[in-house]
Design goal:
With 307 residues, this protein is mainly alpha-helical. It is 65% helix and 3% strand. Strands 1-2 form a two-stranded antiparallel ribbon. Helix 6 runs parallel beside helix 8 and helix 7 crosses helix 8.
Length: 307
């Protein structure tokens, strides 16, 4: 099966079928048989809201826990792409079942109630499955409460399912809510560079908060995740940008790489920043510093755009 399911947004039924096919391709005969029968049971059910949690709870042990890998489809949801190659079979089967049931509901309110009930009744692995697929259900803000709940959790695994490679927060969160999500990702040290929509949703308040956090951690002699530079850079003031450039030169390997990426992205959208980098590269007496700036300039992927 192709890892990409087309360029257009897919219906709930289409997404469910794509995930079910991926599970079948990666599972054994018993797993295939169970998922087929589970789908048929939902299709014939008079009460899918009651049957779905039962089937979801059985999915992982019925189909297995190996990764989808290359069989994992790219799901085209309203909010953006959802990549599934790192999902395990149980997660994929659970989402396929939930999409199937939600797609058969009489209206969006019943679909939302069904998914909300599944989230409330599920264990952590079931909640992770729901959170990863929030955008696939195509219920607009009706499931935002689930996302906000997952954002408050003490479980790094559940929070990561929301924060990383998940298009839902960027599509539905307010600026404050999105900023808090990014800052929590920094605090719990999940890779901020994988927050979907980070560059598009970056804002001056987020840059200031990141600058404050850098100052606090530096004053305490403590480190912070290198991905923070990607959140700070888009609206960094002069002092914050100097901190970024210092990381380009003096940071460890991870900080150098991500700070350079952040600086290059900023320079791609700001001709003044690009010229500033060029001036620093031209005037640098230290060859190591000159090379660091030159590497950032060479990574700029687009002509500068004046603001």
């Amino acid at each position: 099966m192709s890892s990409d399911c087309g360029d257009e947004m897919q219906s709930s039924q289409s997404l469910s079928e794509a995930l079910a096919a991926a599970v079948v391709a990666s599972s054994d005969a018993d797993g295939e048989r169970w998922l087929t029968e589970a789908m048929e049971r939902l299709a014939a059910s008079d009460d899918p809201a009651a049957d779905l949690p039962i089937l979801s709870a059985r999915a992982r042990r019925s189909v297995g826990q190996s990764m989808l890998g290359p069989h994992g489809p790219v799901l085209h949801a309203t909010d953006g792409l959802i990549r599934t190659e790192t999902w395990d079979l149980g997660t994929a089967a659970r989402v396929a079942l939930a999409l199937n049931a939600a797609g058969r509901a009489a209206d969006d309110n019943r679909s939302a109630a069904l998914i909300q009930g599944l989230y409330r009744s599920g264990d952590e692995s079931e909640r992770i499955a729901v959170v990863r697929a929030l955008s696939a259900f195509d219920l607009s803000d009706a499931l935002k409460g689930i996302a906000l709940d997952a954002g408050r959790t003490n479980s790094v695994a559940l929070f990561g399912a929301l924060a990383l490679a998940n298009p839902f927060p960027a599509a539905h969160y307010s600026e404050h809510e999105f900023n808090q999500l990014v800052l929590k990702a920094v605090f719990v040290e999940v890779p901020v560079e994988h927050v979907a929509g980070l560059e598009a949703r970056a804002n001056p308040a987020l840059s200031r908060m990141c600058e404050d956090y850098v100052d606090e951690r530096t004053a305490a002699g403590r480190g912070f995740p290198a991905g923070l530079w990607l959140a700070l850079a888009p609206h960094a003031g002069e002092r914050a940008f100097d901190l970024l450039l210092d990381a380009v030169i003096n940071g460890d390997a991870d900080h150098r790489d991500l700070a350079a990426t952040a600086a290059a992205r900023r320079a791609s959208a700001d001709d003044a920043v690009r010229q500033r980098l060029q001036d620093r590269a031209d005037s640098a007496a230290d060859g190591r510093v000159r090379t660091a700036y030159a590497n950032v300039l060479s990574a700029i992927s687009a002509p500068p755009v004046s603001r």
